[in-house]
Design a protein that fits this description.
Layout: H1 2-27, H2 42-52, H3 54-72, E1 80-86, E2 105-114, H4 117-186, H5 191-226, H6 247-252, H7 260-279, E3 285-294, E4 301-308, H8 318-384, H9 390-421
Helix pairs in contact: 1-8, 2-4, 3-4, 4-5, 4-7, 4-9, 7-8, 8-9
Length: 430
């Protein structure tokens, strides 16, 4: 009899040990990389956003418009066809008779305005700078779309991992509830303990529903950039601990970050506008040729003329235009410098925040999460072996808080990474 009892106790002990080992193995890394499953990866999301984002289509159309304008910049204006009559009598018996007076002449001709070479060169340069500005705006918009898409993808990914972690915690709570019901049925435990374990399961159910709602909202936000809804994202995420460009190089390349690209291009456009205003002081030319037919059998005539503009009031016209464009240039310079300081300060702040979040996430993954999981596993094993329920309830609550805090910090780390990873155009990255 003693042998049978010993054998039974040994089997129970082995079973409890096996359950504990499996629980530890199952819960050891709730936020570690999960098994590969189909889903939208971040690179795929970025590619789709680049193809589907309406604002990028608008910017590309703007580049085309600027290029078309540049193609016609500096061209001569269209020639003008002139038709007229000279020396037409308006009084007497021959009034308005083009054939009565042999001095009357019908004429037809062409007139061509010829802008100065300096003006045409300045207009072509100004149009080229407008093309550069449109391209810079398109690049900045592309970076903004990439960052927004990455943030939406990271939010969906974080919510998805949170749902998975909560579901694993629910399995643990459901196991405790099952044990509690069995002990209540056997009379070894009060009914209040069973109610407490059931409440723990229901609390996790509520948390899971809230996390699923957050996941759905994040998927909808991602669909804003991709044109789809309810997209399942991949479990595989980029390494948020490393940036495409070392953080020390971001400050040295601050002039090339997204927000500064249009500002720099606007400075160049403003400088070209100054040159255009200065070229306006150069006189334009015109040439004209006409053919005249006279009445009374007189010989026909050809007339040629050359004209030149006379900027006689340059002080109140051209000079004021130059002063206005120079003021615009100073505005563009000051705006770019202010934006440069703003972006440099933001980069320093984002780097500091990213570094701090890395340490927080590492602390959770290396210390807080394993400790919370071990405590919960041990107290559950003790409860299943006949111990009290309250230690496990306390451990479960603390583990839940640690999981949720870790999920929040992981999402913040991803967003901080995205704020730095999509500052520079890909062609400027090493």
């Amino acid at each position: 009899m003693n042998s049978l009892l010993a054998c039974s106790w040994s089997r129970n002990a082995r079973r409890r040990a096996l359950i504990r080992i499996l629980s530890v193995a199952f819960l050891a890394a709730p936020f570690a990389a999960l098994a590969a499953s189909p889903g939208l990866t971040l690179p795929e999301a970025l590619r789709l956003a680049n193809e589907r984002a309406p604002m990028l289509d608008a910017r590309r159309a703007g580049i085309t418009a600027a290029q078309e304008e540049a193609a016609r910049a500096g061209a001569w204006p269209d020639p003008m066809l002139t038709v007229g009559i000279d020396n037409l009598p308006v009084t007497g018996r021959d009034a308005f008779d083009s054939r009565a007076d042999d001095m009357t002449m019908k004429k037809i001709g062409l007139r061509q305005e010829i802008p100065s070479h300096a003006k045409r060169t300045a207009r072509r340069s100004f149009a080229a700078r407008q093309v550069d500005e449109a391209q810079a705006q398109s690049q900045a918009e592309g970076l903004a779309v990439r960052r927004a898409t990455a943030e939406a993808w990271i939010a969906a990914w974080t919510a998805q991992r949170q749902v998975a972690a909560l579901q694993r915690l629910r399995e643990q709570a459901a196991l405790a509830a099952k044990v509690s019901k069995a002990r209540v049925a056997s009379g070894s435990e009060p009914a209040s303990d069973a109610l407490a374990t059931e409440a723990a399961v229901l609390e996790l159910d509520n948390r899971i529903e809230a996390a699923r709602a957050e996941k759905a909202a994040a998927q909808a936000a991602l669909g804003r950039w991709l044109g789809d809804v309810a997209l399942e994202v991949s479990d595989t995420a980029p390494n948020f601990d490393a940036l495409p460009v070392p953080e020390a190089q971001l400050l040295t390349a601050v002039d090339h970050v997204g927000p500064l690209l249009p500002a720099t291009a606007q400075v160049e456009t403003a400088a070209a506008a100054v040159d255009l205003a200065r070229a306006d002081r150069r006189p334009d030319w015109s040439v004209a040729a006409s053919y005249g037919q006279r009445a009374g059998g007189r010989d026909d005539m050809i007339m040629l003329e050359v004209g030149v503009g006379l900027p006689l009031f340059a002080r109140n016209r051209q000079d004021r235009g130059i002063a206005a464009r120079e003021a615009d240039y100073q505005v563009a310079l000051a705006t770019r410098e202010d934006l440069r300081r703003q972006e440099a300060a933001r980069i320093r702040a984002d780097v500091a925040r990213w570094e701090g979040l890395k340490r927080q996430v590492a602390l959770h993954e290396k210390s807080l999460l394993p400790l919370a999981q071990d405590r919960s596993t041990i107290t559950l094993a003790a409860y299943r072996a006949g111990g009290e329920l309250q230690p496990w309830l306390n451990a479960r609550r603390d583990e839940l808080d640690v999981h949720l805090a870790h999920a929040e910090h992981l999402g913040e780390l991803g967003r901080a990474w995205a704020a730095l990873a999509f500052l520079l155009p890909m062609e400027t990255q090493p």
